[in-house]
Description:
Layout: H1 5-10, E1 13-20, E2 27-36, H2 42-46, H3 51-58, E3 63-64, E4 70-76, E5 81-86, E6 98-100, E7 104-109, H4 111-119, E8 131-136, E9 140-146, E10 151-156
Antiparallel strand pairs: 1-2, 2-3, 2-4, 4-10, 5-9, 6-7, 7-8, 8-9
Amino acid sequence: MNSHVGAIRACKYLYLHSVSEPEENSLRVVLHEAKVGGPPTAEQLAQEALPSVRELLAGSNAIVHGPGCQVFELVWPSYIGYSVENESYALPEPEESVGEGRLIVVYTESVYLRYLSKATLASADYPGPFKHWALCCLNHIVNVASVEEPAIMVSHGV
């Protein structure tokens, strides 16, 4: 597997920045590393109408993509399927799923793979054995099934 997978897994937080198809049936996903930032400014707090929420926010710190954070570009040359879920509605994989990793989890057995086996013609015979990559971000969960591993490029943002 690509050596940059370890760099993704070493991040504490990720945000999904974009999903696109640079060519037909290829997939590009851009992830932004995020770190704990500072507390909200007085102006930001003043924008909150509810005093109880304003008080809660005053004791918090933002999680932000900023200086020193990495940007990860993952490109699958082809895919069987992909989905993007709002993290607020995503369910964790059950214990019987077989996967490895954190923030980028590679599954050989998962709910998503079972779904694709029923919803598509894809199988181990055609197009060949495939895996499920789950990208676990603060704002979205991205699921990708492909016979190919993603090419991963790393750069530094902001």
